Amino acid sequence: MLFRRSIPTTRADRILRFLWPSMSLRRVISYYKRRVARLPGTPHSIASGFAAGAAVSFTPFMGFHFILGAALAYFIRGNLVASALGTLIGNPWTFPFIWIATYELGSNVLSNAGHGVPKETLSFSYLIDHIGDVLIPMSLGGLILSIIIFPLVYFPLRLMIQRFRDIRFAKRQRRAKLQVQHVTEESA
Q: Is 93 helix (H, G, I), strand (E, B) or coil?
């Protein structure tokens, strides 16, 4: 084959690449920051769309995060693509922490801390049989955390996008000015 690897990858290598990117995590984050900043639209629409997706990731309705994020972004006139990217805040590495935080916060607000789900009997079958004992506190905790997360994501992201675009505009202006100078020097 023309484009085959000289050393085939093993199953362990493929699993490791799936769990941890081959390029550094800092580079992946930098790529997504630039990707979000280059989305079409105003800084407000992009930041509000991304914040809507991030906020929806704190709800316990897994499988509906894209739909809920898009609906919220549409309602607040946010960018729909940015809302889909914002839902990536909730991922297999962050979901356990998000679920624990939403459940504990919801239980404390409902003032049944200690009366909720016994942690030693927590299993998938218990969750299915007693869905209300878990879903109600998680929904309330998720709503509260979503309200907190939205401005924490929106304001810094809007500022970052505006700065990125200002720097990019200034670079384009300098480049255009240099081209004009170059053309006038050649014609003289």
A: coil
pTM of the shown model: 0.76
120 vs 122: CA distance, rounded Å: 6
Read off the pLDDT of residues 31-66 as tens digits, 9 standing for 90 and up. Answer: 888 888 888 889 999 999 999 999 999 998 888 999
- Residues in Cβ contact with 106 at an 8 Å cutoff, skipping those fewer than 6 apart: 136, 137, 138, 139, 140, 141, 142, 144
Query: How much is the mean pLDDT over the chain?
Result: 85
d(CA 50, CA 94): 17
Write the DSSP symbol of residue 20: S
Residue 140, classed as helix, strand or coil, is helix
Query: Comparing C-alpha atoms, which of 87, 154, 143 is closest to residue 110?
Result: 143
Residue 38: name the closest of 79, 69, 5 by CA.
Answer: 79
Query: How far is CA 160 from its chain centroid?
Result: 15
63/77 Cα distance (integer angstroms): 23
**Residues 67-100: tens digit of each pLDDT:** 999 999 999 999 999 999 999 888 888 888 998 8
**Overall residue count recorded for the chain in this entry:** 188
Question: What is d(CA 136, CA 139) in angstroms, rounded to the nearest whole number?
Answer: 5
